[in-house]
Amino acid sequence: MVRWLAILLVALGLAWPAVAGPFDDGVSAYNRGDYATAMRLLRPLADQGHAGAQYKLGVMYAYGRGVLQDHVKAVAWYRKAADQGDIDAQFSLGVMYEYGRGVPQDHVQALAWYRKAADKGDAGAQYNLGFMYENGRGVPKDLVQAVAWYRLAAAQGDPDAQFSLGVMYENGQGVPQDHAQAMAWYRKAAAQEDADAQFSLGVKYADGQGVPQDHVQAVAWYRKAADQGDADAQYNLGFMYENGRGVPQDHVQAVAWYRKAADQGDADAQFSLGVMYENGRGVPRDYVKAVAWYRKAADQGDADAQFSLGVKYADGQGVPQDRVQAYKWFNLAASRFAATEREDRDKAAQGRDSVAAKMTPAQIAEARRLARAWKPAK
Hints:
It is a single chain. Among the domains are: 1-120, Tetratricopeptide repeat domain (Serine Threonine Protein Phosphatase 5, Tetratricopeptide repeat, Alpha Horseshoe); 265-378, Tetratricopeptide repeat domain (Serine Threonine Protein Phosphatase 5, Tetratricopeptide repeat, Alpha Horseshoe), CATH 1.25.40.10. By secondary structure, the chain is mainly alpha-helical. The chain has helices at residues 2-11, 20-31, 35-47, 51-63, 71-83, 87-99, 107-119, 123-135, 143-155, 159-171, 179-190, 195-207, 215-227, 231-243, 251-263, 267-279, 287-299, 303-315, 323-336, 342-356, 361-373.
């Protein structure tokens, strides 16, 4: 209320010289990184009940700017401003409750504060409300309501909401499935450099969903997302180069993109990089490096990598021959291939049984123990 009254008074030529000046100066100091001056100017105003100053103090405590980070104090200042109707403070208080910063985590309270800001047109709060409804946080899961809130935020140009609305249309969640609408919303978000949307456009062009299949366009969109560091896009771009889809086949480029994704922990890329090293594609053949990359992916639970690691231990390529380890990895792969991957699952079982024929009962028991004890790396 104080903030809007201040705006009205300015419009009428009746601005508060004792408040507007120090507040504007405090905000300017904050924006240029002079947090000591910002605190000196804003704290007295906040103590007098100036909602804008109270919100700004909340931000400073939340992020430790000019003061020791203190989420409890941040919440206290946000609440003072939010209780006066400050939209930014209401949104920020919702965030604090959603993630349990300075207050016990409470999705119901988060939802309540997001709703206050969303009802006043705050796009970020509208998006967050959509997310809460989509995931059933603080409210029963309701995909129709999720779409409604995403749509309000998306109409204001919020790229996260535009992307999420595209996902809802793509999967038929809360709306009838409509790939053309998904494309339209992805395109709006992608135009704002949203990497998830750019990646999704690449997938749509690669698969020909909602648009005619076009590998050149797929590569173009993958590249935009990959250049922003999106690991999925980096992996897919590597795949396109490896297989010559939308670009001339180039194993060196494939390796380069796989490596970028693999370094971010992408298991598919780690496995593919192992394959490139095993077969000498784009890099000199190197079984030791192949095993190293297979292991990274296998440790995350990738069944293909676990099978390949089993083969390497059984054959002694890149590692000393070790039938116990071979059995362990074959056994894990056989258990992790999906039911639809029957042929792969059978191959893993055959590998396990083949190596078991050359093992003692004690070795088999040890291999089974290791397989039972294995847990995916986090």
